[in-house]
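Morning, I've got a small favour to ask if you have a moment. You're getting the sequence in one-letter code plus the fold written as tokens. Thanks so much in advance, here it is:

===
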Amino acid sequence: MASEFKKITRLGLFAAVCFWTTACEKSSTDEAFNYPNTANIATITAELTQVTLFDELQGRVRPLRSAEIRPQVEGIITQRLFKQGDTLKQGDALFQIDQDIFTIDVEIKQAALEQSMAHLALIQSQVDRFTQLDRTKAVSKQAFEEVSFNLQIAAATVQQNRAQLKHSELQLEYAKVTAPISGIIGEALVTEGSLVSRTEPQPLAIIQQIDKVYIDVRQPASKLGLLRRLLANEQKNSEQGVKVIVQSSAESADDIEGQILFSGISVDENTGDLIIRIIADNAQQKLLPGMYVRTQIPRQKLQAITVPEHAVRRNSAGLPFVYIVVNDKFELRPVQLEGLQQRRYVISKGVNPNDIVVVTGQDNLREGAELVLSDWQQ
């Protein structure tokens, strides 16, 4: 009897423990799924705005001007007159070629000119004397004509010697090689002691002007019509033409503004692309020749709705959608995107003007929850 009482007591205690444990688990479960009855969300009111759609394309930087430094006379380089990598102005001295032979040639031509001028003066005095004699018929006509011809020959000789002197002086001037353009000079490709001439295939150095640069971009020829219409409209409204945005790298925070100069007329047979040339200010020299950059080329201007990028979500299939508030309730609205412009998605379909679009707080949305709306702050 005592043993049965102990069994009953144990069973009672076990049942009590199980009941208490189940009650605790149920209480915890109910508490875990006790969602709040409100959903705090930040919203904006959709409105139509003027939007410019861009194509993001790769481009290569070209210098505004580039000049290969070549000698115009033959000789030995005696001195390099610049520091490699310097910014130079047009006319700055770069190399000195041995000028002794050119100096001597100038002196020879100067002496020849002076000699011919003295001979011209002598012939001129003879002509003057023969002119006086011709009035009195004291000189033959043949002698007078001969001295007149000699005067013309002497005058021509003076002109010839003067031209030869100028040529020699120019050769002496060319012995000092100067910068044909302003810009940044690279490495010297020859050293002192090198024999150089006009026929050498290798230049002495290269100067590139990069305070402004060209950017050559390849764009599909199929989009040429849209670009031409945009160019025509912009040229009517502004003398500056179509502006583009250039980024030197993905990490660059500063955009560089450029301007479309022209689009090519030859289409690459292999790729179907054509060249668009852009000019951009580069005073800070962030863009270097040969560098690849990203550009945003305007494609089309239209009236469209834009929303912050946080407002757009994607489903499991990757399709975009937004949440719209209608009559204090929310609904999911599929949308069609035209691109991302300045951290805002351009929506062409799915959202209408004056729709209330949820920007943040989408995770708080649940059926039956009371919506608490606030204006989204950027």
In short: The mean pLDDT is 84. Residues 38-52+303-375 form a domain with the conserved putative lor/sdh protein from methanococcus maripaludis s2 fold fold (CATH 2.40.420.20). The helical segments are 2-32, 100-135, 141-174, 224-237. Residues 315 and 321 are 7 Å apart (CA to CA).
